[in-house]
Write a structure and sequence with these properties.
Blueprint lengths: L1 E4 L5 H13 L3 E6 L4 E6 L7 H5 L4 E5 L19 E3 L2 E3 L5 E5 L6 H14 L3 E3 L17 H14 L2 E6 L2 H7 L5 E4 L7 H9 L4 E4 L6 H12 L6 E5 L17 H8 L4 E3 L1 H5 L2 H14 L3 E5 L17 H17 L5
Parallel strand pairs: 7-8, 7-14, 8-9, 9-10, 10-11, 11-12, 12-13, 13-14
Antiparallel strand pairs: 1-3, 1-4, 2-3, 5-6
Bound molecules: phosphoenolpyruvate and manganese (II) ion.
Phosphoenolpyruvate binds next to loops.
Length: 337
Amino acid sequence: MIIVMKPKAPKASIEHVMEIIRENGLETHLSEGKQVTIIGVVGDKTRLNLSNLEIAPDVDKIVPITESYKLSNRKFHPDPTSVQVGNTFIGPGHLALMAGPCAIESEEQLLLIAKSVKKAGASFLRGGAYKPRTSPYSFQGLEEEGLRYMKKAQEETGLATVCEVISESSIEAAVKYVDMLQIGARNMQNFQLLREAGQSGLPVLLKRGLSSTIDEWLNAAEYIIAEGNRNVVLCERGIRTYETATRNTLDISAVPVLKSKSHLPVIVDPSHASGVRAYVAPLAKCAVAAGADGLMIEVHNNPACALSDGPQSLTFAQFDELAKELKAYAALSGRSF
Ligand code: PEP
Ligand code: MN
């Protein structure tokens, strides 16, 4: 439920309403917008005596929230959220370009890629140190050694860094070296991992589960925010459908749907969505046109020899070309990078 205050409601009235809610053993979530102030109520609202609230000074209306996710709900927080990561951000006015290898393979490889994507205009370096692979015999990642290379790349280039975590111990390691944690598609509903990521203090990039609905996805985000970490970014990376021409099917409608249901920033990963290098650029442009706040794109110095996801990785020249084109697409919707 949210309590919408009358325009220009004085601080004393807002505090009075919050006091009533807290006295009933519930938590408040304050959202002070340009026009109105909204007070979100989190917890078992059957404990709340509504008549006291209805007559409180400067209360405009009480609106029930039917969705099970509250803190990630746009009704709780009407203005779009901007998430700060290192010295950059993901949110209104900016197109956050994240690029890098699927897996970190060596220090030389990562630094080479970091410098190249930075030159092209990326503000984030992505790279997997813990790889959740379908086969247990595939390359599983360099783990903490890979994280150390991420730190080095961050120091040398100034790029913000994002790395997938798959367990409590990987979170403990990652917080020492990177700027943002990634929860992968396979772990979107690993609720314990979501809670631990919520407690990490770092912003979290939450990928959509392979077969997850938008409702399930926003509830997953809720697990992180409920731990006190509001810095969550959603990443659409394609879903399982009957189509086999692409690795997954990019659900581009997820972008405007999420924007209407949630205040959280949304980015798109056309690399995992398609699995095919040739489709990455058109899908990236389409994501920007749909209103995505950023893109995550796999780039490799030698895709033919990549230890993971070579067929969908762009070469340096291809990424460079795409970034140039994206500048124009971003400008059309008042964004830059
Ligand atoms: C990745 O980003 O490297 C990755 C494994 O993505 P996803 O979880 O979307 O499959
Ligand atoms: Mn990959």
